[in-house]
Amino acid sequence: MKFKYLCQTLALCALLSPGCVMYTDDLPPVDESYTEDPYQYDKPIKYEEEGIASFMADEMQKKKTASGIEFDLRKLVAAHPYLPFGTVVKVTNLSNKKNVNVTIIDVGPFVKGRIIDVSFEAAKRLGFVEEGSVMVRVDVISLGNGSVNPEAL
């Protein structure tokens, strides 16, 4: 008999203690009418920047990039400090107006003042292999989703 009263007393103390949370079914219904995605990935974006471009050295050949893709200097790829992987950008050499589209597969460059590192193939098509770096304009063609399909390069 004493055990029954002890259990009831302990239960009552537990319910009345400040650390106890009581749940209720009297909550308002969840508003499920809001379905708009705040990020509209299918909408075109306007992004361009101008600055110095350089190209990635031969020592990067066959090494894994930050996206997990193996770097190939013969592909039209690039490294950018903050554009998502898979983003395609048009890089235009401002001195000769040559341009090339590259896919962002790595993070970089890590040299102050540079805005993009392109592959050797891209640098060759842009005409600045001899100089090593050049003033360029970078325009986003399509924004990536953070991943890269290696077969698409």
Q: Mind explaining what this structure looks like?
A:
With 153 residues, the protein is an alpha/beta fold. It has a domain at 48-148: Barwin-like endoglucanases. It is built from two helices and six strands, in the order αβββββαβ. A hairpin with a 5-residue loop joins strand 3 and strand 4 (99-106). It is elongated, with a radius of gyration of 28 Å. The model has no long low-confidence stretch (mean pLDDT 80).
The CATH architecture of the domain at 48-148 would be Beta Barrel
Shape: elongated
* Mean pLDDT over all positions: 80
Question: What is the fourth-level CATH superfamily of the domain at 48-148?
Answer: RlpA-like domain
Assembly type: single chain
Sheet with the most strands, sense and barrel status: 6 strands, mixed, barrel
Strand content: 25-35%
Radius of gyration: 28 Å
**Helix-strand category:** alpha/beta
Distance between the termini: 79 Å
Low-confidence stretches: none
How helix-rich are the residues, as a percent range? 10-25%
Write the topology of this structure.
Layout: H1 2-16, E1 48-55, E2 77-79, E3 88-93, E4 99-106, E5 114-118, H2 120-126, E6 133-142
Parallel strand pairs: 1-5, 2-4
Antiparallel strand pairs: 1-6, 2-5, 3-4, 3-6
